[in-house]
Amino acid sequence: SQTIHQWPATLVQPVGSPLSLECTVEGTSNPNLYWYRQAAGRGLQLLFYSVGIGQISSEVPQNLSASRPQDRQFILSSKKLLLSDSGFYLCAYSKPGLATPTNEQFFGPGTRLTVL
Amino acid sequence: GQNIDQPTEMTATEGAIVQINCTYQTSGFNGLFWYQQHAGEAPTFLSYNVLDGLEEKGRFSSFLSRSKGYSYLLLKELQMKDSASYLCAVRNTGGFKTIFGAGTRLFVKA
User: Fold this and answer.
1) Percentage of residues in chain B having pLDDT higher than 90
2) How many beta carbons lie within 10 A of that of residue A93, not counting itself?
3) Residue B1 has pLDDT above 70, yes or no
């Protein structure tokens, strides 16, 4: 079976500090990986997606970056956090290519980030 | 541009039926999804439509009209546990990128 892990679950960071959020997937090879951010009471904003190691597509220009150092590892980083970076960060995966007709996304438990 | 519109909030009574509408304008289309998200939790997959028509799955049904850029999620026999946000999402033609709407918060009252 497939599972997705994210950590930490909650994080409080001062403005200007760095950030590193990690996501790992088990049970499937070469997954498509995604980072989303959800502001309070809002929908999911796609930040980055990756279809393979070292392949990152950025959707929103901002002070965040993503990396995929291993097949099933996806990392979200920032060198200097802004107040506006606060939110609920969700990692998700889908199976590679068209493995299933729906190929829906499976979400990790999320990281609630508060920047003070 | 890309845009997905859903009502912000809806309220319904336990045991009733509720329909949540979604309209979309996207640069490509390769399927429409509905996800359920309880407060503070991650979204979970509910349904998928890629062809016009109705897909039924237990108490949940989802409808799609590609020509109208329109979908709805129908929830029957509402239960208190159905109180959640319902997110409409459209996958692009390439199949990798999915755009989400802001979600509809559904409140089920006794």
Assistant:
1) 82
2) 24
3) no
